[in-house]
Amino acid sequence: MPWEPGRPGSGPGGPGSPGSPSNPRSPGFPGWPTSPGGPWGPGFPGGPAGHGEHGGGVTRSHGCCGGFPGLPVPPAACLPYQNNTVLYAYSTDIDYDTFHGGANIMVTYANKYTTMANVRFDTKQEEEIEYHSDKKSLENSLNSHVPDPSLGYGNKETGSNLYTVLKKFLNNGEVSLCGAHVFIAVKRYPDESDVLDIITQLRSNHVMVYIGVDSISSGGSNSASLYAVSYQTNGYCLFATGNDLWNAFHSMVETLIFPYQFLAQNFLVSGSGRIEIPTFKTPTPPGHTNYGLVAMTIQNHTLDSSYVSMNYTIESTDGSYVYEFPSDDLLPLFGTAQTDLLKLTGSLLYKWTIDYHYNTDEPQIIECRMYSDDYNDFLPLPPSV
């Protein structure tokens, strides 16, 4: 059966990764182409700074949620997709299915990037980042460094060494950092709360960080700083566990197929209300229709009972195209994230309307992202206060 965008289970499975009823999308299709303690959790310096109305009304696109004073604006010399590097980092405690879902996408699309890198962290004997210029080298390294909890710390008290690994990557001196993509699968949470130095370096080089966090931690104490790192770099962070984590992380890594982000908006909300993102165009050339990727997250921590529902519509202003979530033929919410394909036509204008419902007045963050395979400049980074 031919692959169709948004249809669960469509497309053939990749080698060694068959689809299943519990995993509604077959992996490897080559053309598919917490911490509690307040809404931000501990370790997010400054907390949220809203830039728009929220709670029981219409929230318009003003951006939100700074909290890191003096964060840099990247130099103009750094442009998208020039000598890009992609890093895949994963905890040795992470489940194999989640690891393999990300690894399969990395290997399949290695030829789109100049340098691929991988590292297994949270091991008693710290491992080095390995850099590759060809697909086979990457595949061999991933196959010889699969997750193995027996190599880990063996306790719940020790925090993750993820930030040590990120610092090594940022100071590697060997490969280009400009516009790099970083995908991270987390099972053990870090203990650090002050990550300003790392965020500053990431932003200075337009490095975009995507983090899939297992809601059931193997140790450590601070998941809020993970959200901060991804949020402040225009990536996104999701929380899920089990099959939901596999599905959500697999979809997250598929942003490799669509390397150009053309929409990144964040909204601080509470209760019930509506978000209206102003009319926008896509990077798709006029007269062409291509596939793109849409991603949303609905909480900045592990999914909890305060979330009730989220419905949204992306439609062309002429009414010729309507993408309406939820729908039987679209991928559902997995944990705190929903990611899927949609069609983008270059000659059309689009609008995005989101209706949200939480059963408390506690602040929540909604992240909205869209990606294309057609060139687009880097977007402005979230404001700092």
TrEMBL record:
Biological source species: Caenorhabditis remanei (Caenorhabditis vulgaris)
Residue segments, region Disordered: 1-58, 134-153
Biased composition (Gly residues): 8-17, 38-58
Compositional bias per record (Low complexity), positions renumbered to this chain: 19-37
Entries under InterPro entries matching the protein: DUF7154
Chain ranges of the DUF7154 domain: 265-372
Higher taxonomy: Eukaryota, Metazoa, Ecdysozoa, Nematoda, Chromadorea
Domain of life assignment: Eukaryota
PANTHER family cross-referenced by the UniProt entry: ANF_RECEPTOR DOMAIN-CONTAINING PROTEIN-RELATED, HYPOTHETICAL PROTEIN C.ELEGANS
Name the record gives this protein: DUF7154 domain-containing protein
Gene Ontology biological process terms from the UniProt entry: innate immune response
